[in-house]
Predict the structure.
Amino acid sequence: MEHLKHDSRGQPTAVDTAIHKRQESRLNGRLRLTFSGMDAEEIVMDSAVVTDVCRDGIGASSERVLKLGMDLALFIECPDFEDDLCVPDARVVWVSGNHFVISIQSMRMEDQDRLHRTFLSACRKT
């Protein structure tokens, strides 16, 4: 179910109340990601900055405004690794202007651990 709220600047904020509220605090740091998906009949591909990570989600911001419910594939830059981390099954579950939260629909445990290690490392460098 989608409700519409407004932030402190009066901007509309879409919230998916069907998702579970986060149980753990998020980590704060900066990483880059590339995302791709479909918006109606148009292929969307752009980059974003990861602003926080929790066990099953990623907060990010981008110049492109995403829509609630969009299914995305993500490629997260991991500076300490040769290749980017691929998250093939993610969904936009919260949007406020250019900021959004992506729920990870499925991810291997080892990739989840790698994402958190990468994010912790990025936090220490910022």
The longest helix spans residues 109-125. The chain has one domain: 2-125.
